[in-house]
Each structure stands twice: as C-alpha cells, then as structure tokens.
Design goal:
- 2 copies of one chain form a homodimer.
- Chain A is an alpha/beta fold.
- Chain A has 2 domains: 7-43 and 286-391, Aspartate Aminotransferase, domain 1, CATH 3.90.1150.10; 44-281, 3-Layer(aba) Sandwich (Aspartate Aminotransferase, domain 2), CATH 3.40.640.
- The first copy, chain A, has 13 helices and 14 strands.
- In chain A, strands 2-9-8-7-6-3-4-5 form an 8-stranded mixed beta sheet, sandwiched between helices.
- The longest helix of chain A has 26 residues, at 284-309.
C-alpha cells in the first residue's frame, strides 16, 4: 500500500533540541541548552506604545491583508541600516519580509533545491538549516569550522569534486559554535564561490550582537550578486513576532516571492507595522548596546568559569558576540553520556552530534549563555565540570 | 549549464490575481476583483485593548519564542467552538496554529505529496490551493461543481480510475464560486473517500459567514480520521495577523508539526496571545453577526442588480454566505476580453480561467461583494452589464 506521507518527510531528523528541551522542563535545572534571547531586554513598553499608536492612527489598514513583499517603509529601514552599518547598498526591492530567518531558509530550499543538489554546510552546522533544507532532499557536504571560519582547503576540494548549488553559513558568532570568520576567510570564500558559481546563503541573526572587537564586513560585500543574506529582528527586538528578511538579487527575488505567496501570502502585517513604529520611535542602537553589555558579561562569566573549573583536556571557543559557545571534550568521552549524568546534577546543555550531518561530533556540546543569569552560570559550569571530571 | 532554480518553481502559475490587482490599483475603479474582508468590521478597539493587556500582564512571555503547536488556550478555544457550533469533538492536541489557512495548504502539500500524486480539486478551484500544491508537483484531477456541490458521478469515475491521495475542497461558500455542498453531497463525498482511502482537505475560511439558511455539518463529521480541516481568523477577526489552524488526527499532526517547525519554528506568538485575549474579552458571535448582516446586504444588492441589469443569457450563483459569486457568460464570450473592456469603464473582476487547472472556464468570472459598498455595487454591476451587452 502506498504511504500516506511524502517521501521527503522520512528524511527529516526529528528535532533533537526540541526533545531535549522537553526533558529539562524543570525550573530547578540550570539550562545552557536553550537558544533563547534574554527576555529582560524585550522592549515591552516600546512595543506597547507602538501597537497602540498604529492601531489608533491606521487601525483598519494595519489589520487588513497586505503585500507579499512586506511593508515598504520597514524594508527601506532595513536597507538604510545595512548602508549605515556596513556601507552595503541594497534596494528595498531586494528585500522580502519573512517569518523569521527560519522561513527564509525554507523558501530558499523550496526555490533553489532539486533532489540531490549539492549544499555545503559548516561542521558543526545550524540545526534549523539542516532541518529546513532536508525537506528538499539535497546532498549535504560538510566542511569543518576552524577558529577563524571554514577550512578553506577543504572547501576548495569540495568545490572541485562536486557541483554545489548553495553554501549555507553563519559567518558571525555561528550557532552552534560561536565562531566568526576572519575578514581574510570571508574574501577567500567569496572568491571561491564566485569561481564555482555557488550561491552563498549568509545567515546573520547575531551580527548586531558583537561585544568584543570590531565588526567584520558581511560576505555580501565581496560576493554581491551571488549572496543571499538573511536577517532577523528576533535577537535585537523580540522573537515572538517571527519577523526576519531575505536580501537577494531581483532575479532571485522574483522566484522566491512566488514561493512566499504560496507559503502564507505574506508575513503578519500588524507585527510589521508595530516593529516599524517601534524602530521609528526608539533608539535601537542604545537598546542593542544594553543587550550586548549583558551578553558580554554573561559570556565572560562562562568562559572564566570554564577556565577555572573544567579539566585542561577540555577546550572551548571564545566567541566575540552572539549567544553560544562550543565545548570539545577529550575524544573518548560521549557528550550524550555526559548529558545524562549532568541532568542528574541539575545542569543541561545540547550534545553536539545533531549539528553534524554525517555523524561525528560525539565529544562536543553547545552551551548557551544569553538566557542564564551570571551567578547561575558559575554554579552550572561548576556542576558540569564535576560531571566531566567524573566521566574522565 | 544547470539552472539556478529548482524544477518545481517552473511549474507554478504566476498569480494572475496579483497581476490583476496591480492593474486596477486606481481608486476610481469599482473593484469586484479583490478577496478582502470589509475593513469596517475589523475590531480595532478590541484588538488595541487586547494587545495592551497581554503586554501589561505578561510582556516578556508574549514576546519570547514559543511552541510550534501554538498557544494551548487558543487551541482549546478553537476546539471548544467546534463542539459548540457543530458538536464536533476535537482535542487541542489535534490542532496546529498556522499563518493563515494558506500555510496550512503548504504544510499539507509538503507533508503528503510526492511528485505525481493524485489530488482532486474542484472546478473552478481555489487558486491559493492550486498554487500551494503545485510546488509539490502533483497530478490534479478537477471535478466540476454543480449547484449543490461536487459532481458525484464524476468523483466516482475519477476515484475509480486514479489513485488519489487528497481531495481539496471548500464545502461552504466556495472561493471562487460561492457554491455550498448540500448535506447529502457531503455524506456521499465522505463515503466515497472512506472507500478509496483518500484524505479530504476541508478548507473552511467562510463557514461562520452564513447569512441565508442553516449551517450544514462539516464533512469532518462524516469522515472523521481522514479529514484535515482548515480554519482561519482572517474573515472573522482580521487577516493581518495571518492566523489560521489545521485540525488533523494525531498521526498526521506528528508529521505536519515537523514541517511547520522547519518552515518557521512557530506562528507569531504575540498575535496568538492578542487574538486569544480579544476572543476572551469580546462577544465574537455578536461581532460575526454584524459582518454577516453587512455581507448579506451586499450580496443581495449584487444579486438584485445582476438580475435587473445583466442580459438573461448570463447566469450567476446565489451564495448563502461568504464573499464571492460566480458568473457564467454565454460560451462565445471570453471573460478576459470583457475584463479589458470593463477596466475602461472603471469596473474590475477576476476572469475565471485561472481557477481551472486544465484550461477551461474562459467564459466565467468571479465577483467579490464583501469589500464594496452597497451603492457602488449597483453602479459597478450596471457598468459591467453595459460592457457584457456590448460584447454580445
């Protein structure tokens, strides 16, 4: 008998993180497992004023259907901000508003990927992208991340041996590793992709959250037409709105917009109007600075505690921004085993293997610091250190 | 050279309605072309109060990430309402919140359709569904609509000759035709689908908007496990929120939820909380009654004007609810030609052929009455009558 479900559904890895988050739904547990922004910095008052204002001034319009592309002034704001921050010249016609970056990934998969198409992904790679693209049944090629970004030699080999349509990467404070690409690596990546006619899908949800060092230009600066750039309000304003965007050349936009229309007509228009009003009436840079200061302190607390308490065989990344860092245990340890021991000690994290498309990563794990208070960070890392020492 | 885009993108009909709406973006034109609810009935004050309340009482939570399934109390509300309105017993665990019904269609296509799978669709059929499903490259089988619903003989033949996985239909006040299935037809459809193990995708965005006659039970009543029921707040509260839902058995839900997570993690949580608060604090039935009264009057104005001014060779459906009615011109006329003439007379509609998957329908057209004031309806129909007579 035929199967009720489509073949593509069988290929999808069940969200491991989702399962883990269920296990640790206990307020006593110190959880480094989530990926949530710190709600302390949600601009509740600003959003309340913005919502009231748009409803008072333009109520019937803000509640009506709207265009698939998204609210034009919001797209103009996004384009302006790219210019102000990086000198990137982007036209609002090249911007599509999506339901968070996640929908951007789905629309890209839908518009570009035939079954078996080659997709390059970082190792470890962002789980949401792996999940999204998997629905379109591509062939993943994973390339290790080094301290300053993707392994260029391995990228060269992969491009030489395979026809790769897309390369999905997170050059700033990557999820899960916290690693950023150096400017040199960005230029090298851009040149290699230019030569092989591969599109770079540059996911940048954390780019505004740098608390150490200077901003590094987006790869879009070096690979103009062949970069699809994704952004999001989730980490700088609030995630509940599910508002993100895709920047792409008009030729690509024409096709992606048809996919967006078929997917849900358009993103929540009320939310677009509220966010835009909020951005108009508030100093977003000041707001982002507050978030960066806090995350910087939380990250420092975590790195310091790791250095103090973890055994020397354990290494960690030292992110300059974002929300995550990455731990590599000695080869003989399994982070899944450590996870089970850790839960009993009331501390949780995400084991690393789901971030690998071809097995591997068994001795790695991801820690989130943005949503854990500083004093709890030290306590949690101390417990985790005890568990790791016991496992060794 | 390989194509940049996926093969599935080539199959998608460009949205004809979208193109038409661009042509008629002139406030002087009386447009029966759109599909918009009347914004006069958007509960602006109620939404404003609800937004303010949820932000005041639970600000940080309503702005945070949330669950893929959707806000549980909202899903309980929807389940309760099915029970109160139709005695349908649905558990909240069988309900997934989506970005309008449109996203429901996309998720269903994604979860169930392999390339070439048989999908039955009404003729004329809802354009958004044709577009959504087309991305998954099914084989459409279209079955004519009669005055009381689908042509049962033709459905029998189609099911006998083809393996059909899904049947997509809109039994209440269908878009584009305004036709409703009689109770007898619903039972017959359910029985035939039960026998052939075909899933009925019952799209019901207009079901609450009946202004003539009595409600007829949903097909879900007669085909329990094998019906996927879609609903939406767009027509009874406000479309900008993009909030709808899918009702389906748990086995199906388990798969569809993975597709939803990959598509955008979850629907706008702030909007879910606002709508739920609005529903708690207001009498939604009273609100819907106001909409129904107005649409009933608008529909009456349109049907009366058609009877008065259109030549007798032209027939129209007489919907008992919803937002649309359907015109059949004499065979020799092309509604596309009539459209071009009509635009010059400052009146617009949607030609019927895009609602047919296999050509056809050249002499048909759709009229919307919900978003046109009563006095303009008579004026517009009069102009249209003049054009049709000239074309004859």
């Amino acid at each position: 008998m035929r199967s009720l479900f489509a073949k593509r559904v069988d290929d999808i890895p069940k969200s491991f993180i989702r399962e883990i988050l269920k296990v640790i739904d206990d307020p006593e547990i110190i959880s480094f497992a989530g990926g949530l922004p710190n709600p302390e910095f949600f601009p509740v008052e600003g959003i309340k004023e913005a919502a009231s204002k748009v409803l008072t001034e333009d109520g019937t319009n803000v509640l009506q259907y709207s265009t698939t592309e998204g609210y034009l002034p919001l797209r103009e704001y996004i384009a302006d901000r790219y210019f102000k921050r990086q000198g990137l010249k982007i036209s609002p016609e090249e911007i599509l508003i999506t339901n968070g970056s996640q929908q951007g990934l789905d629309l890209i998969g839908k518009t570009f990927l035939n079954e078996g198409d080659g997709v390059i992904i970082e190792e470890p790679g962002y789980l949401g992208a792996i999940q999204s693209f998997s629905f379109y049944r591509p062939k993943f090629h994973s390339i290790p991340l080094l301290d300053d970004g993707i392994d260029i030699e391995s990228l060269k080999d992969t491009l030489a041996e395979n026809d790769c349509k897309l390369f999905y990467g997170v050059p700033n404070f990557q999820n899960p590793s916290g690693i950023s690409y150096s400017d040199k690596k960005r230029r090298e990546v851009a040149q290699l992709l230019e030569e092989s006619n591969t599109v770079f899908v540059e996911d940048d949800p954390y780019g505004e959250l740098r608390f150490i060092g200077e901003d590094i230009p987006s790869i879009k600066n070096y690979l103009k037409d062949n970069t699809i750039l994704l952004g999001s309000f989730s980490k700088i304003v609030a995630p509940a709105f599910r508002l993100g965007w895709i920047v792409m050349s008009k030729e690509k936009m024409e096709k992606v917009i048809v996919a967006k229309q078929a997917a849900d007509l358009h993103s929540n228009y009320f939310a677009q109007r509220v966010i835009y009003q909020y951005l108009l009436d508030n100093d977003i840079d000041q707001h982002i600075n507050k978030i960066k200061e806090a995350y910087g302190r939380q990250r420092e607390a975590m790195v310091n505690s790791i250095k103090e308490y973890f055994p020397p065989e354990v290494s960690c990344t030292e992110p300059e921004g974002g929300m995550f860092l990455w731990i590599t245990l000695p080869k003989e340890l399994s982070s899944l085993d450590v996870f089970e021991m850790a839960i009993k000690e009331q501390v949780a994290f995400v084991p690393g293997s789901p971030f690998y498309v071809n097995q591997g990563g068994k001795n790695t794990l991801r820690l989130n610091y943005s949503n854990v208070a500083e004093d709890k960070i030290e306590k949690g890392i101390k417990s985790l250190a005890k568990v790791i020492k016991r496992a060794l």
